Amino acid sequence: MRCPFCGHIESQVKDSRPSDDGAAIRRRRLCPECGGRFTTFERVQLREITILKRSGRRTPFDRDKLGRSVAIATRKRPIEPERIERMLSQIVRQLESLGETELASSVVGEMVMKQLKALDDVAYVRYASVYRDFREAGEFATFLGREGLSESGEDDR
Predict the structure, then answer these.
(1) Domain map of the chain by residue range?
(2) Nearest by Cα to 13 from 34, 27, 32
(3) Residue 121, exposed/middle/buried by CB under 10 A (0-12, 13-18, 19+)?
(4) What pTM did the predictor assign?
(5) d(CA 118, CA 74)
(6) Taking a C-beta distance cutoff of 8 angstroms, is the pair 108, 142 a contact?
């Protein structure tokens, strides 16, 4: 594994342990060149998934990009990072279990929205506002009403 600090081609594994409900291995590494310490995660990848974007472009599925978009939606919310990580792993497993090598970005977006709705209403609405690309406040209010959420983010059900 290349050192992220100095670019040295090799690093030494100092500690390995299961992480993420056993779905990944967390490795603490040390660079023999600069002495930098860093962490890597090793996960099983059942198949290579390509995402078909709305524009027609195809891009490889990137778990880290998915994690960044969920992190934005959950920022400053009282959600433990472990719960978010479990949610991301569950989404990736669901995507892989579909058996498809190419998926529309809408499939991923809907899975994320479903998981976020169960996790936190505010994070769900934040993600949906970007995912659904609301242009006007009226569209946003209609969405909130259809989802059974008041405009304050409280569940009306």
Answers:
(1) 8-44, 46-146
(2) 27
(3) buried
(4) 0.66
(5) 13
(6) no
